[in-house]
Amino acid sequence: MPLRILVVGAGVSGISVARGLLRDGHDVTVFDQRPQVQAGGGAVTIWSNGATVLRQLGVDMDGAGQLLSSVRVSTSHRRRLATLDVAAMVNRLGAPVRMVARRVLLERLLSGFPVERIRCEARAVNVSRTPTGAQVEFADGSHAQGDLLIGADGLHSMVRHAVGEPDAQPTGWCSWQGLVTLADAVDDPHVAQVIIGEHGNLGLWPAGGADLQWWFDLPWSRDFVRPEHPIDEIRSGFAGWSAGVDRVLAALTDDHLAHSPYPHFRHRLPRPGRGALTLLGDAAHTMPPTLAQGTNQALLDTMVLCRALSELPAGRVDVPGALRWYEKTRRRKVAAVSRVASLQVCHGESVLRPASLLSDRLHTWALTTFLHCTSHHRLATEISRKLAVAVLPSGTSRPALGVTP
Q1: pTM for this structure?
Q2: Residue 392 has pLDDT above 80, yes or no
Q3: Does 226 fall in a domain?
Q4: 205 exposed, middle or buried (CB, 10 Å; 0-12, 13-18, 19+)?
Q5: Signed CA dihedral, 389, 394, 395, 398: sign only
């Protein structure tokens, strides 16, 4: 039965779930407080689990960003720790791994998306349950009602606050990061680099063409005082870690750090919801960027939530029951990802040395198995198979997003 669904937040999470729900034939409206839909930040890593969901959503990612074949991990003293064989991971998990600018990802998600389904300059100030569903109230005094409401409004989620869930807590670390166009910054555009030190770590991840996503992680506290010239601080902490790092540090200026640092936060996973309200993406489970899984976990939320609502019995609407199934199904797996992402990364050489004794094959197997076990692989395979055979009697494909062109 088609449902009237309200989505608060028009970022990657909100547009993804709206796209999936439109595909399934629901009546969806997305609300965002900004004057236009746009993506902030630099680039994101789309691992195989996220790529599978994008494929289910009909999002064409061909030519977007940079496909990766391996991730090299070393210490600040240039001791090799591991080389993760991303190509082997792709062969097992069945979808590519790529680094892509967040704005490009959002553009691909919006391709073919009916723009009339998005209402900008609609700042939500409260949500509530109603006898027949849910309601959202806006700053201008207007409101909207639907059969259910999804909070996809990010780290500082109004919806999360309205349903009584606690705010995210800082982990004690932050990232100075950005996306820079720099030719020859890395030796191989298919290889990402992570370097771990005793008091900080960094990453250089090619993002397509001459674009490079860089980050430098350092301790952070609430009484942090921003230095007058942060680039000098970054250079003093990370210079000499590798030739590529030195090339990037030479190219960066204080202007590149204008929006940094980005403190790391972690949410306590929400309790089972009540009524026709639920949370998705960073609104539900913000986590540190250590595993680069934030966007991928939001996409998995989308897959499971769409499945939950598609399984509602014909003629009987048990929306709260479907939402509770979605929350329960996601809870254990996303909790595992959040815990691992929150582990301490920075260590001294003596602590890191045992990791260098393990084979690259074992390192690759461990990460691949972890992603496989936390990504609803069996459910994803079943959904992909059903979507592949969902054609009209004439043999033509269903209309994009489940709406009539």
Answers
A1: 0.93
A2: no
A3: no
A4: buried
A5: negative
8 Å CB contact between 344 and 198: no
Give the total number of structural domains in the chain: 1
Side-chain-side CA neighbours of residue 57 (13 Å): 34
Q: Three-state SS across the chain?
A: CCCEEEEECCCHHHHHHHHHHHHCCCEEEEECCCCCCCCCCCEEEECHHHHHHHHHCCCCCCCCCEECCEEEEEECCCCEEEEEEHHHHHHHHCCCCEEEEHHHHHHHHHCCCCHHHEECCCCEEEEEEECCEEEEEECCCCEEEECEEEECCCCCCHHHHHCCCCCCEEEEEEEEEEEEECCCCCCCCCEEEEEECCCCEEEEEECCCCEEEEEEEEECCCCCCCCCCHHHHHHHHHCCCCHHHHHHHHHCCHHHHCCCCEEEEECCCCCCCCCCEEECCHHHHCCCHHHCCHHHHHHHHHHHHHHHHHCCCCCCCCHHHHHHHHHHHHHHHHHHHHHHHCCCCCCCHHHHHHHHCCCHHHHHHHHHHHHHHCCCHHHHHHHHHHHHCCECCCCCECCHHHCCC
Q: pLDDT-derived band of residue 401, with 50, 70 and 90 as boundaries?
A: low
Reported confidence tier of residue 296, pLDDT bands at 50, 70, 90: very high
Range of the domain at 37: 4-169+265-374+382-388
Please indicate, yes or no, if residue 207 is contained in any of the structural domains.
no
Give the residue with greater pLDDT, 66 vs 315: 66
Query: pLDDT tens, 351-383?
Result: 888 989 999 999 999 999 999 999 999 999 999
pLDDT for residue 316: 54
CATH of the domain at 39: 3.50.50.60
Instruction: Kindly state whether residue 228 falls inside one of the protein's structural domains.
Output: no
| Phi, psi dihedrals of residue 355, rounded to the nearest 5° | -65, -30
240 in a structural domain: no
